[in-house]
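Job type: complex structure
Entries:
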Amino acid sequence: MSQVLTTTEPVGRTLPLRRPRLPRWAAPLVGLVAAAASLLVGLVADWSVAGIVVVAGLLYVVVLPGWSLLVENRRSATDRLFSSLVWTALAIALVPLISLLYLVISNGAKEIDGQFLTYSMRNIVGSGGGIYHALIGTLMITATATVISVPIGILAAVYLVEYGGGSRVASSLRFLVDVMTGIPSIVAGLFAYALFEIFFGPGVKMAFGGGVALSLLMVPIVVRSTEEMLKLVPDELREASYALGVPRWKTIVRIVLPTASAGIVTGVTLAIARVIGETAPLLIIAGATTSVNTSLFSPQTPTETLPVFIYYSYTQPGLNPQYSVDRAWGAALVLIVIVMILNLLARLLGRMLAPKSGR
Amino acid sequence: MTDIPLEVRSPKRRLGDLTFGATARGAGLLILLALAGVAVFLTLKGLPALGAKSADLDAHANFAAYVWPLVYGTLISAALALLVATPLAIGVALVVSHYAPRRMATALGYLIDLLAAVPSVVYGLWGIGFLSPKLVPIYEWLADHVGWIPLFKGPASTTGRTILTASIVLAIMILPIVTAISREVFLQTPRLQQEAALALGATRWETIRLAVFPYARSGIVSAVMLGLGRAMGETMAVAMVLSASGIVSVNLISSTNPSTIAANIALKFPESSGLSVNALILSGLVLFVITFVVNFAARAIVSRREVSR
């Protein structure tokens, strides 16, 4: 205290009120300069596009904090360093997505025509043929999985929210469903195989088994999303219904579920999108074939699906590899389009079905 | 003043209520039963493999010797994938939660979700058809210049289909889930603590380091563990990208690579019969147990967080 009081020097004149800051346009400027420098050197030294981009990014990450260190202080420099690092992380994360989409579209688009979508691979050697059999199989198996998992999933969620409460069974079920979302898909396939082998003997290949395997992966997703949605339904609605003498089950069926329907439909659609691209379980229990199979329950008939078609077309291309590889890219494009449409549909349905609130 | 006869009865149990409640409970129990069924059926079908001879075990003496290199490959590829994915995922999650303007953050969230929506077999195509060839020069450079590190000992693979490539593809595949969970915890950080830090003159990064990370630590740990579970169980991308020879090796860039449990099952199952099928199923049980334990621990950390809050 006494020290402060005895200070005679005028503090205000020696300590500036504002410390030096980089101008607002410092970051874009450095970015521009880094890009230009890298492009210039890169063009002269004949680097690849990736090389130029990487060098430009490195320049930016080094130069901006360096400049800040000279003009501002160490803390600001650290701040700018980490700002540029997190944005770089984002850029790196988006590179695979963009390159993957570009690759699939550019390689796959030329394959897609009427024949590709309506022909199977029966008796096809070399060019021609299509993915009709795989589309039918995917549709059949995914529909089976949906039919199994949606009722079980929704009912289990109803139990968790409406009946279970905080009971020990309910909380352990909730926990185990969470754990189940991490079951490797191949394990689901092995489970279905081990189960069906008991009834139908070794080497069982059955479309229904594929549906069972996929539903093991789908149920946890449906339960979790439905549970979240049911929790959002206000208790006032339930209480109003009880007050009118409506029984509990009818309250759930007529009040709670319809109120949550938008979210439930969104969740189910996203779950379908998630399992429709599963390959590993179907490789094991549904197998691969070149012709259309519409029999769900015949135990020794393999069923082709879109992901398995992609896998085998690329890894075992046969006599004329180029045709088969091209078909793999075409099928990959079809699969991605299906998944994207399902994702968009989920969001659209969620918005369209959402209950109109007066607020 | 007449007495109203009060009849005390237990509430009427309606048939509809009873059946509906029982059905809902039954559905819940069915899920538990299915989970138990996975363990039971895999054990049932896997156990015969313990007595299998080397002919059914890829020339390994017993099942333990058969499964150990696969477990090693599974762990090493998943660990490498985490090493790549974790910093990226935390960076992306920070952009979405703290750096980007809100509207852009929503769009970025969708984009990252798109990354999760791409089927694994398409990642496999991308990895084998695009990434592997692109990485060959880098691997050759590594073998030439830092080849004295056992990890990068030459000669480098000429196809690029190494365990490092597989791990990079895995990293991209687990990025969305690690990002999504980290983003959630970052967004839940108490607003007041961050504002207090900013008011004391902390920079944005200091705020994140002092107010966000301590709060989010357990959430990040569980996100990483969930990512680990995904990476260990991922099948198709590894099966397609990796040129596996089922050895134990620390070399990341050679053309002989350890295989993973999941990839080994996918590659061998369609051509297997007899006891080798049982061996594959038993290795699947090993994978199931490992991923179950990892996921169990991760979820336990998450739920402890939720209770303590």
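Summary: The mean pLDDT of chain B is 88. The CA atoms of residues 135 and 160 of chain B lie 6 Å apart.
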